[in-house]
Write a structure and sequence with these properties.
globular; two-stranded antiparallel ribbon; TATA-Binding Protein; alpha+beta; single chain
């Protein structure tokens, strides 16, 4: 099968291993395969299904990632497209000097980051994927959300075979827009979730949701566009902006996991209120989404002291 391989330059000291560790524990990572120190992910392009593989190729003098893509018609365009997605997923093109200054001056952020200063947020492969995953994650536990995501991929997605391995592929918006309600209901989707998923996918296929235009809007305006869709609230909109579009100035103050992790970092016994969480984030303007990522990431670390 045709393949292409190259190496891409990454920021100095970039912690690719931390990204893989985050994905191993993420309830949203149902399409990614982490084998040892290699990231693999399949998607469908106009050339057919393609598989990207990413491994570290870092040396002290030249920090790099090795990116490979294979598929039935893989070519240089396949590799260029894969590189763009990899740089997006691993937040490789963000100038982090402002965030590093914040870590150096704010003890709360420093405690949340811990030894992960050279880690970076891991994003969804594209905005539609983040929208679907966020709708599924509304008001359910993370374990149940993961099972629902897997069910959606099994029902509306497809599998690609590379070598002896099978890789699931995210269903396209047109498939979700017309998905059979009974099949999702049998997989324990609520009627409200089915409706929200179908309407959101229809908004994408009809170009009501224009991702480049949303990315260029101020976050408040983009949030208003997203929450204008049925079943999309501020939390879901925030997840799409943060994880789908890479918008940094978004703060999901209503998120319970975030409020619990911040309380733990402060030595409080109960989750912070939404108002307290918003007030706490005031000094983090411009980097709120990054602080949120490290706050969620801190949940898998040992509890810090008060």
């Amino acid at each position: 099968m045709p393949s292409r391989t190259t190496r891409i330059t990454v920021p100095p000291f970039y912690d690719f291993a931390a990204a893989l560790s985050f994905l191993r524990g993420s309830p949203s990572a149902v399409l990614e395969s982490i084998e040892g120190e290699t990231y693999r992910r399949a998607w469908r392009t106009d050339r057919g299904p393609e598989l990207v593989s990413v491994t570290s190729a870092t040396s002290p003098s030249r920090p790099q990632l090795r990116v490979s893509v294979e598929g039935p018609r893989a070519d240089d365009q396949s590799l260029a497209w894969a590189i763009d997605r990899v740089r997006h997923i691993f937040s490789l093109d963000v100038d982090t000097r402002g965030f590093q200054e914040l870590v150096g001056t704010d003890p709360i952020v420093a405690g949340l980051v811990g030894d992960g200063l050279h880690a970076r947020p891991v994003l969804a492969a594209d905005p539609f994927e983040s929208l679907v995953w966020a709708i599924i994650g509304q008001q359910v536990g993370v374990g149940f959300a993961r099972s629902l995501r897997g069910a959606l991929v099994s029902i509306a997605g497809e599998e690609a075979v590379f070598g002896s391995s099978r890789f699931p592929i995210m269903p396209e918006a047109c498939r979700v827009a017309d998905i059979d309600e009974d099949s999702l209901r049998a997989a324990h989707f609520s009627r409200a979730k089915v409706r929200a998923l179908r309407l959101a996918a229809q908004a994408v296929t009809s170009h009501i949701l224009d991702w480049p235009r949303l990315a260029a809007m101020p976050p408040a305006e983009a949030t208003a566009v997203l929450t204008g869709l049925p079943g999309i609230g501020p939390w879901t909109a925030g997840v799409v902006l943060m994880r789908g579009l890479g918008v940094r100035s978004v703060w999901p103050a209503a998120d319970l996991g975030l409020r619990k992790a911040l309380a733990r970092a402060l030595g409080a016994s109960a989750p912070l209120s939404e108002a307290q969480t918003r007030a706490l984030a005031a000094p983090w303007a411009g980097w709120e989404a990054w602080v949120a990522f490290f706050t969620w990431r801190s949940l898998s670390r040992r509890p810090a002291g008060p």
